Give the backbone structure.
Amino acid sequence: MTKKIAFWIFLIGTLSSAAVFLGATYDTHRQVGALANVDKLSDQVVAGKRAFEKYNCNDCHTILGFGGYYAPDLTKVVQRVGEDGIRFRVKSPELAFANSPRKMPNQHVTDQEITDLVAFFRWVGEINNNDWPPQDSKKRLSRGEQMMVAKVGVSPGAAVFQSKGCMNCHSLKGTGGTFGPALDKVGAGMSAEEIEKYVRNPKDVDPDSKMPPQKDNLSERELDEVARFLATLK
Amino acid sequence: MEYRSQKIAYWYFAAALPLFVLQVVVGLWLAANYTFTIPQSIVNVFPFSTARAIHTNLLVLWMLLGFMGGTYYIIPEETKSELYSTGLAWFQLIALLATGVTAIVGFLFGWTQGRPLLEIPVELDVVVVIGALVFLFNVAMTMIKARNWTAIQGTLLGGLVFLALLYLFGMPFYRNLVIDWYYWWWVIHLWVEGAWELVTAAIFAFVLMKLTGVERQVVEKWLYVEIGLFMFTGLAGTGHHYYWIGAPRYWLWIGGIFSALEPLPILLMVFDTMHHVKKRQEKIVNPLTWTYAIGCAVLHFIGAGVWGFAHTLPQINYYTHGSQVTVSHGHLAFFGAYALLNLMTFYFAMPKLKGIAEYDDRRGKIGFWTMCIAMMIMGLTFGVAGVLQSYIERVLGMGYMVAQGYMRLWMGVTMAAGVFFLGGLLTTVVDLFTLRPAKVRA
């Protein structure tokens, strides 16, 4: 092989790869509107993105898998912890992560910025990104969900547990918040009636309890179901 | 040293080394964040995110200073002429250093663009661009005036122009997060797997040629094949970052196929290094410089080639993407490919700049082996943590913090290895600043 042939290898190698790359880049721009729901990319979503950058969230959290690996990925955060869950964590991280070995800084994010952030995350969560991350895939169930599905035949309370924000503070099999205790074995120590009483007014049972009383949030029926579900966890 | 203006390279190296030390110190703090519980009061004023921004920006800053210093050392010898202007070289060194220090102090006060690795605010980006233009102008004018074109010069200049152009894609604000990441990788990926590889290949070819005395025609022939393969696999290989960002599905094929070939040019680099060393015409004067050259080729292959390949296929990457597996690959690859390349250049050029023909390399050897062994251990422990994370969090679907609990021990071991790395690095830095002639062997 001569140096001249080597030079042609360089030139053809570079140009062919660049052609593939730039061609696919052009096509990606054509398709991204549909894949990322650009019609829903409102000014509020953009404001949320600016807030996300202002507080440098991305150097601890990943989003679409990129960024710091110090905190959970935020791609499907709305689906995972709910909009209230996001508000609680950003507003009062010192409470939300009081019992967590890893803390989140309180950056005094304004209420408006938090609302924008939530809109941004809602938009990000709907990007068609080949079903990543796997732990949030709707095609497969996480351990916490599997556990609830296994119980749901005997108690629809599992659905209440997930939809009424209990998991912002409590966890099942490691899924959920850490502000309140994990409830994996709550049924071993409390009956359904005791749980019901506790949830309605925690301070009546334990004066030191930090849990807010659940009054308007849960109907009688919902409370009954969720208590019976929790009592089965032993 | 054959040309007076080469002396400027020394000050680039001297600026780069303390920044490297600072980068590693901040790295240890990051590892401590994973290992211990940092109280809320500290997290509120100095969060992990700020420390990470400092750690990564210091990396880019010291490595770019190293590349620039290396370039200023090589260009006079390649063109057989003095630099166009040492004044501009000084201006640009001070501008880059001042920008870097301002940026890092700014991070502490929350002045940031808020995008990982590209945290430097737009105002400072402008200074960086001006500095880069001055640098390119200086290098290009030296080459044009000298009219002694070689493939090494062409590759070096091409790589540096490409590097500067790509930086521009990281500057605008993108409304759409998908497009944002799409062009973010034009900076990050096309730097480290494109432009930086060109610069590295050119510097490496130059040092090898000087060390081994192998004919220029042979060295430059292999250089063309290498950079051809780097470009062929690296450009379209950017696709391995587009699997899960909301880009079309065909990127899984483009990224998977091209990046599976990415180890090839590095493997070629290992082979031709071995070949040149075997066919050497010069006797080995400073064994440590040779050790660095071979160490760089081998660890470049392990860190960038093997570790990169290990999680580049979409089927695997689906579970490892955005986990500590990436961190393991990042550390081994940057150290093997770029830290060792820079240190090799320093060990090649600094004795000559000080007029030492044969240097005492006893401390340097300790530094080299301590750093290499410590970094290999860190690569493995980050890797174990990453596999645990991928399995517990992604496969089993247990919570993020549950996985982090199992990983904690391994992050602690990483921190311990990091302390050894810092020890090796300090030994190396002190050695480079106080090089002494070797005692005549009796």
Chain B has 15 helices and no strands. The mean pLDDT of chain B is 96. Chain B touches chain A through 84 residues (CB under 8 Å). The CA atoms of residues 360 and 438 of chain B lie 4 Å apart.
